[in-house]
Amino acid sequence: MMLVGGSDLVRCKLFMSTLAGTAMDWFISLPDGHVTSFPQLTNLFRAQYITNRAPPSISYDLSDVRQYLGESLKEFLHHFGAQVVRLNLKDERMMVHAFRKGIVPGPFSESLIRNHPMTFVEIRRRAVAHIAAEEELNEKRTCVVPTRPPSIGRPQTLRVH
Question: Which residue in 27, 81, 85 sits closest to 57, CA to CA?
Answer without folding.
Answer: 85
